[in-house]
Amino acid sequence: MRSRRPTDPRVAALRWLAGRDLSAAEVRLRLLRRGVEPDAAAAVVADLEAEGLLDDRRVCRAAVEQAVRWGRYGPGALRRYLLARGIDRELADETLATVGESDWRAVAEGMRRRYDMEDPRERARCARQLQRQGFPAALVAALVTDPGPGPARPQDSDGEPEKG
C-alpha cells in the first residue's frame, strides 16, 4: 500500500498552504519534522516566498484582522500568538500598530460583557483577564470602574431580573 504522504517537500508545502496560510517559519518547521534537510527546507521556503505563495506579511495581517473581528485576543496576547507562529517581531508590532484604539476598546468591551460587573470578584477577574490579554492599564481601569452592560440575566415575567 502506498503512502499518501508526498515525498517532494515542495508538494507537501503546497498541500499545507492549500489548507491555510502558514508563516515561513511554520512551513520550514513542518518540513524539518518530516526529515527534510535544512538546506532543502530553506530552498523550498525561499522559492515559495519568491512566487508569492508564502507571505508572512499576509499571514500576520489576516491573523490580526481575524482576531480583532472575533474579539478573541488583546494586543499583548495577539503579539505573543504571532511570535509563536514565527512572525518577525518588527512585522508583528507594525501590523498591530495598524489597529485603532477604538477597535481595541471594542474588543475589550466584548470581553468585559462576559462578567457580572456588579460583583466585585467578577470585576477583579475581568481586570486580570484584560491585563493578561495585554490591554493598556488605563483602558482596563476605565472598563472595570464603569459598570456598563454585563452579561444578560434571566428575567421573570414582570421584566425584572430574577433573584437567585
UniProtKB/TrEMBL annotation:
Record keyword Cytoplasm present: yes
Gene Ontology BP annotations: regulation of DNA repair
Location in the cell: Cytoplasm
Start and end residues of each RecX first three-helical domain: 11-48
Predominant location: cytoplasm
Domain annotation RecX second three-helical: ranges: 55-96
Pfam families: RecX_HTH1 (PF21982), RecX_HTH2 (PF02631)
Gene3D superfamilies: Winged helix-like DNA-binding domain superfamily/Winged helix DNA-binding domain (1.10.10.10)
UniProt xrefs under InterPro entries: RecX_HTH_1st (IPR053926), RecX_HTH_2nd (IPR053924), Regulatory_RecX (IPR003783), WH-like_DNA-bd_sf (IPR036388)
Keywords: Cytoplasm
Positions of the UniProt region annotated as Disordered: 143-164
Gene Ontology CC terms: cytoplasm
Function: Modulates RecA activity.
Family, as annotated: Belongs to the RecX family.
Name of this chain's protein: Regulatory protein RecX
